[in-house]
């Protein structure tokens, strides 16, 4: 097994375990056992657990933001597409909320590398919504709807929070298009 395969195995195991059970509940030995990567190689590739957590979140960010961008680009109405995409994600059997907020909730302002990834992810989501919204204020409102729906869905998985947020987003778009005099 070369370093690239070992890295992939470690990240696959870390993502499955950290997302399902939490960052603090899963130790490096468990990651090693699940991945089949020798402990020496694990620590050569990821000298500390913080480095593994940051790498897992970076990989998840690329996939998550990439999937959302693809859905929005393919949709005739991009803002509702954001919430339709969220509804599908919230309906996945292993959905456990936002991995970035979960990690932040567990680690707080702890490891700088992890906090940087969390902040970058949220900035990317904010930028995506800013590209779709007619005003910066509406982009911020859409961000709050998306984040709020994600938190609600983490407690009660399923599409309903995203669909409610979609309705609210459409009302905000309509109000922005037809302001009262």
TrEMBL record:
Pfam families to which the protein is assigned, alphabetical: TetR_N
Record-annotated DNA-binding residue ranges: 27-46
Source organism superkingdom: Bacteria
Gene3D superfamilies hit by this protein: Tetracycline Repressor, domain 2
Domain HTH tetR-type, residue spans: 4-64
Keyword DNA-binding attributed: yes
Alphabetical keyword list: DNA-binding, Transcription, Transcription regulation
Keyword Signal: no
Protein name (Swiss-Prot/TrEMBL): TetR/AcrR family transcriptional regulator
Record-linked InterPro entries: Homeodomain-like_sf, HTH_TetR, Tet_transcr_reg_TetR-rel_C_sf
